[in-house]
Amino acid sequence: MNVTVVGAGYVGLVTGACLSEVGNHVCCIDSNEDKILKLQLGEIPIYEPGLDQLVRSELNLERLHFTTDIAHGVSFGDVIMIAVGTPQDIDGSADLSYVREVASTIGEYISSFKVVANKSTVPVGTGDLVTREIRNGIAKRGIECDFAVVSNPEFLKEGNAIEDFQKPDRIVVGVEDSIAASIMRELYTPFNRSHDRMIFMDVRSAELTKYASNAMLATKISFMNEIANLAEQINADIEQVRIGMGADPRIGYQFIYPGCGYGGSCFPKDIGAMIETGASVGYPLKILKAVRQVNDKQKNILVDKVIVEYGANLAGKHFAIWGLAFKPNTDDIREAPSLTIIQGLLDCGATISAFDPGANNIARQLYKSEERVNIVDDAYDAILGADGLLVVTEWKVFRSPDFVLIKNRMRSAIIFDGRNIYDPEVIKAHGLSWHGIGRARAVFSAPAH
Ligand SMILES: NC(=O)c1ccc[n+]([C@@H]2O[C@H](COP(=O)([O-])OP(=O)(O)OC[C@H]3O[C@@H](n4cnc5c(N)ncnc54)[C@H](O)[C@@H]3O)[C@@H](O)[C@H]2O)c1
Questions:
Q1: Residue 91 shares a structural domain with residue 219
Q2: Which of 116, 385, 390, 407 could form a disulfide with 413 if both were Cys (CB 3.0 to 4.6 A apart)?
């Protein structure tokens, strides 16, 4: 099958490469010329494990090609997938301008039957909007042309995106046209072999399924963070509580890790968009408002702990940050807790050295005019002379560090463990001080600083 993917970001690029790998011919389009030039040369603008090899191999096989030419893309694909960004608008709702622009361009060029599948995360009703935009474009040209708009939300996780795409838990397709349904089934057949993972429903329900899934996951995180903060107040240990809770199969162990908050390009904006959807129909979403409120506070929790240790005036203090990406195995720092933490420390007068195994380049760009933030190339350079080490992202490389080196290099050997990745007893044995999340019993202070 010929497939066009519009938007060559985290979702579009992975989708294009994975659909190409199974034998389709794929055209990936992006409006960003630099990005397309790089991709044509096999240079991958994002960090996603395995993606560079896959894209290069598909380019070499000439099954995958990149262009900014949307007219070519519209005529090329039997299926046109929309995978452009849907960032948060000023009022919190989803900004649909990119989706609208793509839909109207499809309307300008479409001349034979196409399935237009929306992979972007979009509010309920966007399928209707895309249909209207395409229809308007067709009407303006005074021609007749049939098409079907399908909702095909994406559930991949950055950092594990290729495997998630190749072995999805479910493939949700919102479709109200039987020909489009069978084309979508054919497209996904290679990813649907061991058992049927395809779930067909109406378009609006598919759009809501994506938001509701992200909202549920964010709720689990904020719930657990709230219980962790309570545990700290009443001298319980959230790690023991977590293990006890997760043993109940109705709860399970996934997504109940306490930490310094969720971030990324999806949860914050999707929760915001859902709250706005509720407000727009006069049905305020109370749980999701609380989820967001708890998370906003949680992103500051490590700074709060630093202030408890040192006071609110951090002038002359220097801190190391390990982990800038919103989660391991990605270079994505959009809405990452690290950004809130860095700002919080700067506001109190501190200086910062930070290291991330994947996001250093992007962070360097972001902080290029901020002299008080130094992005370094080695984790152990970051801690040199530091008054505290804040572990913000649980990359594997941070899990078993050289505690002797940490103690020797830091001015005050205090670890603020924002993901509870260290065993407090091991840290204590090395003579370091440690603060975790929701682990009052395990907190111990350094001898002196
Ligand atoms: N990143 C994730 O983990 C993830 C997971 C599931 C769903 N989603 C959803 O998928 C969508 C895309 O997310 P992403 O993270 O891939 O975004 P992204 O910002 O990485 O990529 C979007 C791309 O679209 C391009 N673009 C914008 N307007 C365009 C246009 N008119 N024509 C061609 N290209 C255009 C941009 O240049 C950019 O390269 C969003 O709605 C997001 O919520 C993301």
A1: no
A2: 407
